[in-house]
Design brief:
The chain is α/β, with parallel strands linked by helices. The chain has 13 helices and 17 strands.
Length: about 400
């Protein structure tokens, strides 16, 4: 499957110090092939082609994390190709974005065997795709499929992640990727067993959410679309990624009790379920919760919520960055990012729904958030691109 949308062209091509460069809006970006020691055209392509970058998206959050980086790359004349694996709301978010992408592979379930089988099927698809497009470098956040394909095709690539206990994934990715990029809050000693050490291991300041939410402005239309009553406190609930191997199929048993607590308090709940099975189960409780059928603007919903209760990771951190009180019901091993947020008082852990209070949060919290430049993250993620002004 391939979705095609028009892209804007670049203004003109110049040559600087032996390298091809394209200029847009007064900014010059030097382009070169990292697999050919910077020799233009050595990869067998037309010498005026921009550098080709491959990004693989295998989960919903990856679309949000990498979209600002894709926008930056394309604004500076690079050619970016996206591949995606069908899982949860990944394809829906890509459709909402409108960027072309190619679907490769399928979801293999939560078991080791199912994931291994699906991975074995997807690997040759990625290899054929990568060989056909002759990419110069590649990037993914948590894709277990991209580093092996890139290693075989000799494509420099970076793997990103911010949860260090997905052991099987990291044993593969950290060893096969050219670069490993993680938040600086993760102690380096936790990653040694995966084969991630400097200089391969690179750490960025802050949270990934502080980069991709830097220019974010919440959109009230999500509330209208869902039929949320602005006069009642709002609790957003995110279900568990039960398909994740590190959770072993856990479904966060606290969710029904949380929804009963919200209903008893006279507040309203919106449940962002990840699978059709979760949606059916929540609706079967008949507690009046709003359960969308497809992906919605989760960032805006979290920004407007008075409290978030979540069994995931990325949405917890989005809430912490946007100033929304957040309770975690995550059942996996606690990672360094969540440990840090808990120490700072920006994340709490819910074991008894009776502790949950849903009341209007203070106004203006979103305006005081930390914002970081996505261009800084891009420079660390793809060091094979050289900038000059």
């Amino acid at each position: 499957m391939r979705r095609e949308h028009s892209k804007q062209g670049v203004e003109f091509v110049t040559r600087q110090n032996g390298f091809l460069a394209r200029k847009t809006a007064g900014f010059s970006l030097t382009l070169f092939s990292p697999r050919t020691n910077g020799v233009p055209g050595a990869a067998g392509r037309n010498s005026i082609d921009a550098v080709r970058i491959w990004i693989d998206l295998t989960n919903t959050a990856h679309v949000l994390v990498l979209r600002p980086l894709v926008d930056l790359l394309e604004a500076h004349a690079h050619e970016v190709e996206l591949t995606a694996r069908p899982l949860s709301h990944t394809l829906e978010l890509l459709d909402d974005w409108g960027h072309p992408y190619t679907v490769l592979g399928r979801y293999g379930g939560s078991s080791r065997f199912g994931k291994a089988r699906a991975g074995a099927e997807r690997a040759p698809q990625l290899i054929r795709f990568g060989r056909r497009h002759a990419f110069d470098c590649a990037l993914a956040h948590g894709s277990t499929d991209l580093p092996p394909a890139c290693r075989l095709l000799r494509i420099p690539n970076t793997t990103m992640f911010d949860y260090e206990w997905a052991s099987l994934q990291h044993h593969v990715n950290c060893r096969l990727a050219s670069r490993v990029l993680v938040p600086d809050v993760i102690p380096p000693e936790r990653l040694v067993r995966y084969g991630a050490r400097p200089p391969k291991l690179v750490r960025y300041p802050g949270l990934k959410e502080e980069y991709y939410l830097a220019k974010f402005h919440p959109d009230e239309r999500v509330l209208e679309h869902l039929g949320v009553d602005r006069n009642r406190p709002l609790c957003v609930v995110r279900t568990a990624p039960s398909y994740a191997l590190y959770l072993g199929g856990a479904e966060a048993a606290l969710v029904p009790r949380v929804l009963r607590r919200v209903a008893e308090a006279g507040a309203q709940a919106v449940v962002l379920a990840r699978t059709d099975g979760q949606r059916r189960e929540i609706r079967g409780l008949e507690l009046g919760a709003i359960v969308p059928d497809r992906a919605v603007d989760g960032r805006s919903l979290v920004a407007f919520a008075d409290v978030l209760v979540s069994a995931g990771g990325t949405m917890n951190r989005e809430a912490a960055v946007l100033g929304t009180p957040v309770w975690s019901i995550f059942e996996g091993r606690l990672g360094a990012v969540d440990e840090a947020l808990a120490r700072e008082g920006r994340l709490r852990f819910l074991s008894d729904p009776a502790e949950l209070v849903v009341e209007p949060k203070p106004r203006g919290t979103i305006e005081h958030r930390i914002r970081r430049d996505p261009a800084d993250l891009l420079r660390l993620a793809l060091p094979w691109l050289s900038e000059s002004r």
